[in-house]
Amino acid sequence: MTDKPRLHVIQGTPAPETPVEQARARIRKMPKPATMIQCHRCGSREVMITKIGMLLKNGKATGGTPQVICASCHRGGQRVVLV
Ligand SMILES: [Zn+2]
């Protein structure tokens, strides 16, 4: 273990203001188009949402980290995280 972190965040120089760079910045700001979630392992589009680390609060299950996993792979005993 090292005492000091070896990586630092620096204030880098911005990209040059060329038309190409302006177009890239504009495209980066655009919202991403909706795409259908598909399993990268089996190609299935059936998913399950699981929650990790939920808390029982006043008799109700709350919180937790949702995770989207492939339902088809899950049936075959595999846990494939999609999102
Ligand atoms: Zn799958």
Write a concise keyword list for the protein shown above.
83 residues; alpha+beta; two-stranded antiparallel sheet; 2 helices; 4 strands; 19% helix; 22% strand; binds zinc ion
Notes on the protein architecture:
The chain is of the alpha+beta class and 83 residues long. It has a domain at 34-83. Helices cover 19% and strands 22% of the residues. It contains 2 helices and 4 strands, in the order αββββα. The strands form 2 sheets. A two-stranded antiparallel sheet has the order 1-4. The protein has a two-stranded antiparallel ribbon with strand order 2-3. A hairpin with a 2-residue loop joins strand 2 and strand 3 (60-62). The longest helix has 11 residues, at 19-29. The two termini are 32 Å apart. The model has no long low-confidence stretch (mean pLDDT 92).
SSE inventory with pairings:
Layout: H1 19-29, E1 47-52, E2 55-57, E3 60-62, E4 65-70, H2 71-75
Antiparallel strand pairs: 1-4, 2-3
Bound molecules: zinc ion (ZN).
Tally of alpha and pi helices: 2
Percent helix: 10-25%
The stretches of 5 or more residues where confidence is low (pLDDT under 50) are none
Please give the radius of gyration in angstroms: 21 Å
Label the overall shape: extended
- The fraction of residues assigned to DSSP E strands is 15-25%
Tally the beta strands: 4
The H/E string reads HEEEEH
Mean pLDDT: 92
Instruction: Give the helix/strand class.
Output: alpha+beta
How is the biggest beta sheet arranged?
A: 2 strands, antiparallel
What binds here, in terms of ligands, is: zinc ion
Could you give the order of strands across the largest sheet?
1-4
Distance between the termini: 32 Å
